[in-house]
Write a structure and sequence with these properties.
The chain is mainly alpha-helical. The longest helix has 35 residues.
Length: 100
Amino acid sequence: KKKQRRARRSFTPEFKAEAVRLYKVGDRTLSQVAVDLDLTETALREWVKRADIDAGDGPPGALTSDERAELTQLRRENKRLQMEREILKKAAAFFAKENG
């Protein structure tokens, strides 16, 4: 039988930090902590990896959570500015055609 897919859940940063702390204490494996907290191993592994990066222990060039958030915000802003520029270019062309 196929496993029933679980509904997507969201967790607070405090919960994630506590889950990572429980794993890092070292008396249980990642699998055991995941089962105890009713999480997938993949989710917990990702939280541990993200915590290591945020603590400066990640691979070289890895972005911290703050840097990732800033990059997302900058990309959103860049997209908006590009759209505004396109609108202004079309408006300038329209008015140049009207007046000339």
